[in-house]
Amino acid sequence: MIEVRIQPHDFNVAAELDRLRDKRTDIGALVTFTGLVRDMLMHDRTDGQPITAMTLEHYPAMAQRQLEAIAREAETRWPLLGGTIIHRHGRLMPGDQIVLVAIASAHRHAAFEAAMFLMDWLKTKAPFWKKEEGDTGTHWVAARAEDDAAAERWSRG
Amino acid sequence: MKLLYFSWVRERIGRDEEDVALPDGVTSVGALLGWLASRGPDYAAVLENRSAIRVAVNQDYADDAHPVSSTDEIALFPPVTGG
Questions:
Q1: pTM for the full model?
Q2: How far is CA A109 from the centre of its chain?
Q3: Residue B49 forms contact with A (CB below 8 Å)
């Protein structure tokens, strides 16, 4: 069962992995993805300008609902033994952790694929919006076409 | 009906939520957006480029044909950028 948590405070990756393992001996693979705040603008026109902070706004009820839905979808597609998704909101600094996806399975392929699937879908479905602050002011980050394409790869045509 | 706004949609409209009385004949997302755009220049500006706006009805994504009723929670926001 993949657990979904949305919170303003930081998370400890090692502690989260310990919690997932919890004396189990049936887990053969534990794949972890951690997303961090970069110190450069991701905005096309101002790429390369340093950012001083990033604020993540979200739609709480829908974010929880959408993340739960993609977690359930991953569980139906791959033989998983557990997992944790954590997404932060609020004002973050460069280097801060934003998101954790940790997936446990008996075998590495299922764990890798499920983690990638979850991140690709999270980026296009979970209602979070990034606002970057820099010396040139603040602006909302625009959605990227390549994220849509990445999520689309997992669609069952 | 409860309307919620996020990100630059919230900033442009100048509030994060409002309760509105659904006019007669507005029964779909598309019709709702058309009515909203007629409420003032800020609404019109937000909805000028329909493809730039995502709509959720009761926390699920919805297209223009999706039905709406007075008990729904409808959210308008730009494409998401989390992760």
A1: 0.94
A2: 19
A3: no
Cβ(A115)–Cβ(A103) below 8 Å: yes
- Cα(B60)–Cα(A139) distance, integer angstroms: 26
In this predicted model, what pLDDT tens digit does every residue of A76-106 receive, in sequence order?
999 999 999 999 999 999 999 999 999 999 9
Contact B75 A35 (CB under 8 A): no
The Cα of A25 is separated from the nearest Cα of chain B by a number of Å equal to: 31
Which strands make up the sheet holding A29-36, listed edge to edge?
A2-7, A80-88, A97-105, A29-36
Angstrom distance (rounded) from CA A32 to CA A13: 8
pLDDT digits (tens, 9 = 90+) for A141-153: 998 888 888 898 9
With a CB cutoff of 8 Å and minimum separation 6, the contacts of B81 are: A123, A128, A129, A130, A140, A141, A142, A143, A144
Nearest CA in chain B to A37: B83
Chain length of chain A: 157
Could you give the 3-state DSSP secondary structure of residue B61?
A: strand
- Taken as a whole, chain B contains a residue count of 83
